[in-house]
Amino acid sequence: MAHGYDAGRLDLPFVGVATFGKYPLCLDWDRLDADVAILGAPFDLGTQWRSGARSGPRAIREASTLFAFGHAGAYDHEDDVVYLPAGQARIVDVGDADMIHTDTLQSHANIEAAVRKILKRGALPVTLGGDHSVNIPCIAAFSDEEPIHLIQFDAHLDFVDERHGVRYGHGNPMRRAAERAYVTGLTQLGIRNVSSTAREGYEDARAMGSDILSVRQIRKLGVDAVLERIPAGKRYYLTIDIDGFDPSIAPGTGTPSHGGFTYYEVLELLDGITRRGTVVGVDLVEVAREYDPAGVTSILAAQVLLNLIGRVLHNRA
After folding, report:
1. Which of 169, 172, 228, 238 has the smallest number of Cβ neighbours within 10 A?
2. At 105, which CATH number?
3. Residue 44 in marked binding region
């Protein structure tokens, strides 16, 4: 099989335009024709402590170029599968939704409009945050679609209803999602330690259809048992907060929480999810380059997303 080393440009990671995975750029959304569309949502006005997640989309895109060098796909020798085969994986980067400084509602509206456009064009939306509040407009964009089950990887429950009038910050997205009739339930994985949500938030979450598991509970149950708790054969929306990972491998985030996931724990769950149902939307949030001096968090985010997209497309086929 041709691997791209013998002819044409070498295109090392530091050469060229840093789109996600060095996939083509499509800024005319009315002409979007792809299986997967990568959208940036560089918004971080919803943070309660350290801001900086607005740098996430650029950092993830730049890190993703590491995995876009000289191959006709990504061969996984453990699975004996070539993921993202060249010429078959139709992925484009559609740039960023427009952000309006100091205006949460309009910025969110722009994200929602972008995701709606991607869905209308028949592509899988993969949104790069931004803080976790960007999930609110992402989920809102599915109001005209078939019902979805929301699967969250996170250290925090993010189920606050309202605090000092704030309903659309990064502590609110799972509550806002649970209120929508087309969100049939939530699976919340990795939740641990001192959280942004009080006891009543957990009680409300369970009453509104959430299954909540900590990292330690997941390790005791095992991957297969956790997957069995997720409704089979459904349409899944995945929201991945990078602070779901342990800060030893993901320090570059505003609210790190010790005791988090390792890389392979999440990858094995994601692989199982792509086999168990249909992934119809993804966001990965809370990467903050300013707290990531070695770039390992951005690399982790890019690696997770490319592996996830590869498995979504492979298992769909």
Report:
1. 228
2. 3.40.800.10
3. no
